[in-house]
Records
---
Amino acid sequence: MTRPKVVMYATSWCPYCERARQLLGRKGVALEEIDIETVPAARTEMMSRSGRRTVPQIFVGGTHVGGCDDLLDLDARGDLDKLLQTGVTDDE
């Protein structure tokens, strides 16, 4: 089974982005990171996809996880590992 693609819109200096990077790193996730300050039009793309203006914005497969707090909550509930394996949670 192929693991879903994980994309995070972020900046290099954001402490919440770093917390998300660390958690996903501990999970062994191959993360595609898009720096909204260095990639032209990335902020607009992020806002269009997520409906949010803040970083990080994290997507697992087709699922918008949200920001760092959302990611940490998902992990605390025990749903992050399932999402990282299948791309869906029990909520969907």
---
Amino acid sequence: MTTPSLETSLTKLVGVRHPLVQTGMGWVAGPRLVSATAEAGALGILASATMSPEQLRSAVREVKSRTEAPFGVNLRADAGDADERVRIIVEEGVRVASFALAPSRELIARLKDAGVVVIPSIGARRHAEKVAAWGADAVVVQGGEGGGHTGEVATTVLLPQVVDAVDIPVVAAGGFFDGRGLVAALAYGAAGAAMGTRFLLTSDSTVPEAVKAKYLAAQVKDVTVTRAVDGLPHRMLRTDLVSSLENAGRARALARAARHAAGFRRLSGLSWSRMIRDGLAMRHGRELSWSQVLLAANTPMLLRASMVEGRTDLGVMASGQVAGVIEDLPSCAELVERVMAEAVEVLGRLSGH
């Protein structure tokens, strides 16, 4: 069966068949998920923040060995080794560079000069205007429904604001999981929809099956926003661990953070000074205590405990609100085909066909 396609400014920009993006989720968006997404005709984004530069190069090459379709790499613009990671992306011929935070004007220019498409993720209109003025090729706009670090403005309010403010393709994120959502995003003026939790909950995702079962069992009310993990608003599944973090005193939270941060340092090969610098960079102008800075540096280990080791008792599970309405684990190919078929059917019904 041929999957229906919809050509938009996004598909033309990055060279994919369908206006769908699988987001770069740490410990989740590895070579298997990204290559399966790319083969299905959507844009897969490899998460590099939890990889060393050597691991990133290896992961990129593994994706390229599995598919000839375009894909992207997500990285932190504020990371101490961002320049090295950009060099790897350029040398390995990666099509798209995505950023969780706004890259500098200089970094955007360097990537564009090398022929790489630059797509930052933003959570406010002014940020979209800034990166567009600096030369970004497109932006992903995440509303408050999205998983992980998130803002307070709903996608249905933020998306039209950004579409009206910039002249580059806008990809909608936060609350999308099916063809109806894609059509809604297109109606607002977006060029496509990005999905994280929906792609996490596929058979191609390497997240342990027991963890996937936790997501599938979750109701909408079980997805919460907390500052207890790293001092920043973080949307995730509510668990006993999240509740204990919220109820823990500062000394206990700091001791836990130091223990987990030490583990991440061993895994990543980063120095303590480098981890603290990266943790400080996550302040983004906010007033965070030193314990919160250490918690920020420690967050990758809390995510790894669940997403890699399956220890939901020791880790956290970043999640969009859509976890409460997802009930199955299709392959990426099945998911993309389903979303696109539904989108085309909805568009036909709206147009009277």
---
Amino acid sequence: MKRRVVITGLGAVTPIGSNVDTFWNNLLAGTCGIETIDNFDTSDLKVTVAAQVAGFDPLDYLKKKEVRKNDLFTQYGIAAAAQAVADSQISGKIDPTRFGVYMGSGIGGIHTFVSECEKINTKGPGRVSPHFIPMLIANIAAGSIAIRNNAQGPCLPVVTACATATHSIGEAYRTILHGYADAIIAGGTEGSINRLSIAGFTNCMALTTESDPLQASIPFDKRRSGFVMGEGAGALILEDLESALKRGAKIYGEIVGYTNTCDAYHITAPHPEAIGATRAIKETVDQAIAAGINLDTANVYVNAHGTSTPLNDKSETLAIKNAFDKNISQVLVSSTKSMTGHMLGAAGAVEAIASILALRDGQVPPTIGYREADPECDLDYVPNEKRVQELDVALSTSLGFGGHNGCLAFKAYKGE
């Protein structure tokens, strides 16, 4: 028997705020979190800007000795999850065996990988940390969060590159929908801004070399030239509606659709006809319609993947148009990556949070830095300033290396 799944807690660590309220207020204000990189030498790198996390102190969430034993991506994930759990007030109010964690990462502990490679090369194998493997592996954030919250139910670390967090939330949704858990901490986390990552993404022609932070991430603008690396984490508490009502939980909204597809085309480039992305969005829209959304009258917001790369933005525009067809005029689209950069495995989670809050507040965050229209990107991208608009449904899309596509749909919960 299918159940209804709602969101009862949110947590965020981002380049424009290390809690949900700051993050959301800065999104609506059009605050750019991209800056010149200041924590390592970029003199020999082509890329000199990134969206680094602002205002985060790991000691707010971990003891000093724990900070040393957890890679940055795990620290971010633990923090976002702690915020979401506190926001939901779910601790002690749910059967631990029915409480899960789906926290993914696109890359995992790459800071640890770099530092331990330096150790073995300069000091020998005896100096490699005994914590190297636990700090490195991509599942450790999910495992650590489960330990901290006594979440003994299903625990999975989804790893689908830039679609990671969207798939984490979507698969958690399905798990609750079909009765395998009552609540799940779901999202994604990433902490991978270092010299090696920057060099790798640069050499595969993914990053912009624009040095002006305000003109670096400009999704859907004709001048776009690549994405900007970001970092951080997002976490959502997904919960069975009956469970949430029984304990009197605050409900942010309801998930009414999720689809996971693959282009099966190329390891980094999207399909030129956007076949997989179109299907992901269209099938998610169809699920939302089945849940009561009347697309002919609905006001729709799509928080787009919108990476500011030439191929992605063109392909994603086509996918959105294909999926909504005659209803495309009712759709507002924006890319919050214009402010947060591309948070990789965490992107889908913070963008899902933005979608949910847009529904709650009737305010659509802008795509900042937008100046020059591209004929191949011809939708309403909410340029430069937020839009006040009551919404009926919000979608969040993610498109990852490997051809991974994911789409989530949310609607407000009004006690029906």
